[in-house]
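Postdoc handover notes: sequence design on the structure in folder B. Input tokens:
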């Protein structure tokens, strides 16, 4: 993310002095109650102050919102008599570069809402910041996002009034401004030059003007609030969206990933790559229950174990992948599959479907019109017709590259097409073997053995796909390619 060459001990001292005074704030809400803990510096100097009535700072902050990451999120409950705000100490001197960002799930799909602000009333002046939004872009704001800094205004018009979490960010680099929605650039502009010095500390959720009409108040859930002393690049913004602030700033992005081998597993699919347990696969059998042992006595394609899916009219076996909502602009999905019943049924491979969502499913004898399908809500699907209705193992895979999809059967491309464009951000985590709709008819349930299930945050080339199929995931990803996040079962 940042490369620093230490030329001498004097330079080391200078760098340390700069870093301790820099504006580096990440509020995740985990473990918070009376304030918002800054998890980046750890010195407590920029712990967020909760303000509810415009003046009072002795009210506990509510962290019972629906989280984007972790187990907590800030819950803003503003009303005509309550203006929930988090004030960020020591943020008057933002410098010549900075990034402002957070995940928001607003309870107000329309109307102007403050994101970050220092507005105190009257006319906006150069030493104010105002970053607000109107998700449906039909109100008085005239835009879906507005960022006022250094006396200049930058706007965006992409709407996001769907009652889902969205990531909003702005970067400032010596006058150059960029606005991002869900990791994608949606607006840019020029705001003069030089460092930004403000009259007031930044506030999140509203500004310094108490609102009695509900206008400008943010109401809803907010997670991963970030103020960073650099203008993150477009690729870094995408990484921030995909991995979250904690991993982005504290993790090793060259070693992110999950490895499920089925070897030794019983109650869940053990993550054997990072070892932190955060992405251990969750076994779901009845659509809700997660306390049922996972069956690893299937027929293996590699090693000595494989996952065995035994779904029926009263049992829907699935493995849920934690933290898989943010698939990004590139990814690969793949698995080996064998069905002792010759595979003549419609079955889910990867899915988060719940009446809408994402599907990668198959029907080996294409009795429903396709043998493999890649479906994304709001866009057309890509279908393959090459059949594989026998009792042999087959390797099924799909790659997504900014909307372009290729489907592979046993390492060979069998279909391609487009399903829109941009980053794929899901409302629910991916599942393998079923989705979120409990099936009592047997339709869509995967039955049989599954091995080497792969979720890779890169669109593999045809040559790499053939290599993955030929030598297996363990050898293909050992060592993993740099900068790649991998999920393998």
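Designed sequence:
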């Amino acid at each position: 993310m940042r490369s620093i060459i230490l030329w001498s001990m004097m330079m080391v001292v200078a760098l340390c002095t700069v870093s301790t005074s820099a504006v580096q704030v990440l509020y995740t809400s985990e473990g918070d109650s009376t304030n918002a803990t800054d998890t980046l510096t750890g010195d407590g100097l920029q712990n967020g102050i909760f303000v509810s009535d415009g003046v009072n700072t002795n009210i506990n902050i509510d962290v019972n919102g629906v989280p984007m990451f972790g187990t907590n999120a800030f819950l803003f409950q503003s009303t005509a008599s309550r203006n929930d705000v988090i004030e960020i100490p020591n943020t008057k001197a933002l410098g010549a570069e900075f990034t402002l960002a957070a995940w928001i799930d607003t309870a107000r799909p329309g109307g102007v809402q403050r994101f970050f602000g220092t507005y105190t009333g009257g006319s906006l002046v150069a030493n104010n910041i105002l970053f607000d939004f109107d998700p449906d872009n039909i109100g008085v704001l005239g835009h879906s996002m507005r960022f006022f800094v250094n006396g200049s205004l930058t706007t965006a018009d992409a709407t996001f009034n769907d009652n889902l979490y969205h990531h909003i960010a702005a970067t400032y680099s010596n006058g150059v401004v960029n606005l991002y929605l869900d990791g994608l650039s949606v607006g840019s502009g020029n705001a003069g030059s030089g460092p930004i010095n403000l009259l007031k500390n930044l506030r999140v959720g509203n500004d310094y003007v108490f609102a009695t009409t509900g206008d400008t108040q943010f109401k809803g859930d907010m997670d991963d609030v970030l103020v960073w002393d650099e203008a993150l690049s477009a690729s870094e913004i995408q990484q921030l969206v995909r991995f979250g602030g904690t991993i982005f700033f504290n993790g090793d992005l060259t070693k992110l990933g999950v490895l499920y081998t089925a070897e030794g597993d019983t109650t869940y699919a053990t993550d054997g790559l990072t070892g932190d347990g955060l992405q251990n696969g969750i076994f779901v059998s009845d659509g809700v229950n997660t306390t049922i042992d996972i069956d690893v006595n299937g027929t293996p394609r590699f090693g000595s174990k494989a996952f065995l899916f035994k779904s029926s009219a009263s049992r829907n076996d699935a493995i849920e992948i934690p933290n898989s909502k943010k698939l990004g602009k590139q990814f690969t999905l793949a698995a080996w599959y064998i069905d002792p019943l010759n595979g003549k049924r419609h079955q889910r491979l990867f899915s988060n479907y719940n009446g809408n969502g994402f599907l990668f499913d198959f029907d080996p004898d294409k009795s429903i019109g396709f043998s493999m399908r890649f479906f994304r809500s709001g866009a057309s699907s890509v279908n393959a017709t090459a059949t594989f209705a026998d009792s042999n193992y087959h390797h099924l895979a799909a790659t997504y590259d900014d909307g372009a999809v290729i489907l592979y059967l046993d390492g060979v491309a069998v279909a391609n097409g487009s399903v829109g464009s941009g980053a794929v951000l899901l409302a629910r985590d991916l599942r393998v073997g079923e989705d979120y709709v409990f099936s009592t008819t047997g339709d869509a349930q995967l039955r049989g053995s599954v091995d080497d299930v792969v979720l890779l945050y890169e669109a593999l080339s045809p040559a790499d796909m053939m290599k993955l199929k030929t030598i297996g995931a363990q050898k293909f990803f050992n060592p993993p390619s740099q900068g790649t996040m991998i999920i393998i079962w």
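Context for whoever picks this up: The longest strand covers residues 97-106. Don't rerun without checking with the PI first.
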